[in-house]
Fold:
Amino acid sequence: MLNFVTSNMLKKILPFGVLFFAICTFAQPKTDSLLIHILEQATSTVSKKVLKDPAHYRLQIIYTQIDRNKQNIPSFKNYYYNYDPESYYNPASMVKMPLAFLSLEKLHQLNQPGLNKFTRMQFDSNYIGQRPLIKDSTSESGYPSIANFIKRAFLISENDPYNRMYQFIGQEAINTRLHQKGFDKLRITRQFMGFNEEQNRHTNPIKFLNDDGTVLFEQAGAYNSSSFDFSKKFLLGKGYINKNDSLINEPFDFTKHNYIPLEEFQQILQSVLFPLSVPEKQRFDLEKNDRDFLLRYLSQYPSETTYPKYNDSIFYDSYVKFFFLDSTHSMPSSIRVFNKVGWAYGFLTDVSYIIDFNNKVEFMLSATIYVNEDGILNDDKYEFETVGQPFLKGVGESFYQYELNRNRKFRPNLSAFKIKYDTRNPTDHRTDIKVVDN
Structure:
């Protein structure tokens, strides 16, 4: 089903869209017996509770086995649990990942001398609600840049960096480029700014500046005149709190929200981590140093990062590593997780590539769960800490243990993912960051 249509096209396809919705409503989620077996090993009360009624929790899991041949070339096989690409979940901060990839791709393709991810930026405004941005106190230079946006989006999942990358790429280009790569079920329609549909179509004028403040490159504000196909409705819950703090006793409408099936997220991450494993059209056009930068900050911890300087007791190492998030807040020393997470509206999602360097283990794991027992959206009463996070931790542990015991014909050489991470300077007494919008 197309995501961009004209009004005339929409009138013609609407009856089909209604029929398509009816068919998909009764489609059987995909479940492989291997995943049932692995998940049955989880013995916690929370795990048993969720697995007893996966539909209630809108649970979806994708486990990707990676096997190498004698030449260390990987092959991938996906297994599914309760997977249904037509079952809506809110991706929340997950959308920051493809925008980071597209931002670096766009910089590369602009091919402007002196223009790169570290170049100083300035955001102006030319439409209702838009916010200028001139300085960024979290960066080493004191100014905004694509590099610092990506750090902030990956390290602890800050929101404004997503908005700024959205404004740099533009709503139409975001969707067009991702659809061209074969990720054609997704749509990214919204900034995290409380904007209406029309405001989200407009993006800010942007300047890239030399160190002396002169203009290196200028991008005019953009407007997306293409239409989205919103014929399929996504309604959830029994009520919601509106912007006036009033309870509305009807389902919350996610129809015009961001939407990306879980498998497309898995494929987007795989296309950057393992570009040769996907069709050429699906790859992102990145310079090597930009891809290396992405790998670093998909896996680096806040405690290892000097700029931005996050308080590492609040933003601990496993803060955005849901499959390893436990009460210790630490990460196993031999493990690195290249991932992105999202949490909002009762949904928790993680798409990860997990490596254990000591045990020569690698696999991909993606999962989303919905924890909202009262059925009310926007009331900030979600079971993130009592159900969602413990369950995802249990999922991570179950698949990691399975991988530790899985036979491989050839042990992988994982040196390509061995990264020298930053080290905090113990004499750096700058005030650290304790409060962010994420």
